[in-house]
């Protein structure tokens, strides 16, 4: 039995199937963790959702920003629709409601204490240890799965508040948590989130912004973290993190990491969008 984590798929269904074939993945024996952003911009987000859901207990996916965007479109009737979206087939599919109900049950974070390993889409602020991160993830997951789901979708978007405080309440608190788990790349040394810069480390316009995982006071440093979201960072296996978004959508590759040996396997991708800081 092997357990793999795979980076951002974003609707690249054929590449996902080819990578799993390359791994000799067998859902009766193996498990796959997906680092979020199953959907959007690629050619077949609907097929990706159907396939991953069909794997049942053999697959686990955390939520990414594009997955939450899909849920917002579903709830808000295209209020935030963009020309780059490729999500209409899901919203109009006969099984679309079932797929979306399944998607909103996905976690923001998965923690495996036996491996001392956590899976999430983007990042954690330096003030959080893993116990705090798990508790914060549970707060949002409860809302996504509960009666306040629709209303939360109306308040999810925005960059503020930019700094964590245990005293944050209401939509501000939930928005901050979502932004960390699904959008974070850079923050300042005192833990203020910075969404302006999306490029590689060293291109952030100064030394005030650091990748979230390089903040010296980061309290989650003792847990190995696997994440995606940062295609311009690419494969990064230092600082007790494994970044595995290698830009499949942009013509890079789709990457899997085997969780016990920590070996990586990548599949070259043709690309379906113009490369940029995504």
Spell out the key features of this protein.
278 residues; alpha/beta; Purple Acid Phosphatase, chain A, domain 2; 12 strands; globular
Write the layout of secondary structure elements.
Blueprint: E1 3-6, H1 13-22, E2 31-34, H2 45-54, E3 59-61, H3 65-76, H4 88-92, H5 96-103, E4 109-112, E5 117-120, H6 130-144, H7 149-155, H8 170-183, E6 186-188, E7 193-194, E8 209-211, E9 224-227, E10 241-243, E11 253-258, E12 264-268
Parallel strand pairs: 1-2, 2-3, 5-9, 9-10
Antiparallel strand pairs: 1-11, 4-5, 6-7, 6-8, 11-12
Helix pairs in contact: 2-5, 6-8
Write up this protein:
It is a single chain. The protein has 278 residues and is an alpha/beta fold. Helix content is 29%, strand content 16%. It has eight helices and twelve strands. The protein has helices spanning 13-22, 45-54, 65-76, 88-92, 96-103, 130-144, 149-155, 170-183; strands at 3-6, 31-34, 59-61, 109-112, 117-120, 186-188, 193-194, 209-211, 224-227, 241-243, 253-258, 264-268. The strands form three sheets. The protein has a five-stranded mixed beta sheet, covered by helices on one side. The protein has a four-stranded mixed beta sheet with strand order 4-5-9-10, covered by helices on one side. Helix 1 (13-22) links the parallel strand 1 (3-6) and strand 2. Helix 2 (45-54) crosses helix 5 and helix 6 packs across helix 8 (170-183). The protein starts with a strand and ends in a 10-residue tail after the last strand.
